[in-house]
Design a protein that fits this description.
single chain, DNA polymerase, domain 1, hpI Integrase, Chain A, 3 domains
Length: 415
């Protein structure tokens, strides 16, 4: 229950109808008593501020809450009990927004993009999903680049492709090349070509000259060795997880999925309890980037790490996700960002943060370990779920003992 002042502030404000709903929301999601009390004081404080400013419920949104946190809290002289810790208040108000919108008390979030560009991106997303069949992460990436392009050229005016000239396309890509690596610029070019093809199918626009103007950055895929961890670095990385804490055991189990099986961060986050077949010793990956179901063998070390997490560290949860949050709300699965964060923190603890920051190096490490153990390229391609064997050929260069056996002497050097 709300303490006296918080209850009175809520009851006298435009939030009065949502007080009990908000409290029930926090309790259903497993928040502890101290957290619930802090969030109650935060919302009560916000309710008092709304009442003093005679602010109607219809004006409650992200920008108003931001103004409360940044303008009111630093100069607040409100009587106790008032929660003034900014990160606590932000979290409490974020949950309040969710409750108010679920009840229909306030409209959805306001558009950050001009309406014309927002609608164009929505149509483009439908095309990418229903016509191209792209994965959600790929669609998000392409929408991001296309939104930058459309904002740069059209702003708040209507999107009219006929106004574009080939030099507009080329200049935009070249400017991005100053800030991004060639691989990222290539992703940008792919997104623009995809959008221009969409315009052909949707409106019949003449875009041949525009597509031809998208520059392709010089990038030789096989010019360098794939970054990977040495056996000693792998041991140091895996030992960087605390085996005595619940989050440490969760992080270790996620890391074993990355290192032993070459999974992507998004695939680790998406694993369900029903995907594990303990009798057969397999893991089913359903969907993901490849948009198909794959069955992979579950290595013993990976299986043991998962079992230890399930038996000793996983919170009680109704979620069928393998990896779940260890802080309220407990019934929410982890995200790919959670996996990446756990890996980055482990890199920091084992002294590798200066060299590695992402999870993809662990996918390269898994492939490298398989190749050096004598696994064929076809088998590696199957484990990594590459559509083309050409994608896997980069790992031919990491097996140095075999390469040394077939290497010809340097011209002019005695055998």
């Amino acid at each position: 229950m709300f303490v006296s002042s918080s209850r009175e502030w809520m009851g006298a404000s435009v939030l009065s109808q949502s007080a009990h709903t908000y409290l029930g929301y926090l309790q259903r999601h497993g928040y502890g008593a101290a957290t619930v009390r802090a969030y109650e004081h935060s919302v009560g404080h916000f309710a008092r501020w709304l009442t003093q400013g005679r602010t109607p419920l219809s004006r409650v949104d992200e920008s108003l809450m931001r103004r409360f946190v940044t303008d009111h809290l630093p100069a607040c002289r409100c009587p106790a009990p008032c929660q003034r810790t900014q990160h606590v208040v932000r979290a409490a108000l974020a949950h309040l927004l969710h409750v108010l919108r679920a009840e229909g008390g306030i409209p959805g979030p306001r558009l950050l993009l001009p309406q014309a560009i927002h609608d164009e991106l929505e149509r483009f997303n439908v095309h990418l999903q229903e016509v191209c069949g792209l994965a959600p992460s790929t669609r998000t990436s392409r929408r991001m680049w296309v939104s930058k392009f459309l904002l740069h050229h059209f702003g708040r005016t209507p999107v009219e492709i006929g106004r574009l000239k080939p030099r507009d396309i080329a200049n935009f890509v070249v400017r991005q090349a100053d800030s991004y690596k060639p691989g990222t610029v290539g992703v940008l070019g792919c997104a623009l070509r995809s959008y221009l093809r969409f315009r052909v199918l949707r409106s019949g626009d003449q875009v041949e000259a525009l597509m031809a103007a998208v520059p392709t950055p010089a990038h030789w895929r096989l010019a360098t060795l794939p970054a990977h961890l040495t056996p000693e670095e792998v041991d140091g990385f895996l030992n960087a997880f605390d085996p005595h804490s619940a989050t440490g055991r969760r992080g270790y189990a996620m890391a074993r999925c990355l290192v032993d099986m070459g999974l992507r961060a998004s695939e680790v986050a998406a694993i369900q309890l029903d995907d594990l077949n303990w009798q057969e010793g397999t893991l089913k990956l359903d969907g993901g980037k490849s948009r198909r179901a794959d069955m992979l063998p579950l290595p013993d070390a990976t299986g043991r790490a998962i079992v230890e997490y399930l038996c000793d560290a996983r919170p009680r949860s109704v979620s069928r996700a393998l990896f779940v949050r260890h802080r309220a709300p407990f019934d929410v699965p982890v995200t790919a960002s959670t996996v990446r964060c756990a890996v980055r923190m482990a890199f920091t603890r084992c002294g590798l943060a200066g060299r590695y920051t992402g999870t993809h190096v662990l996918r390269h490490t898994a492939a490298t370990r398989m190749r050096c153990a004598g696994t064929s390229l076809k088998e590696i391609a199957d484990v990594l779920r590459h559509r083309s064997l050409d994608t896997t050929t980069i790992y031919t260069k990491v097996d140095l003992p075999r390469l040394a056996a077939v290497a010809a002497p340097w011209p002019g050097r005695l055998p």
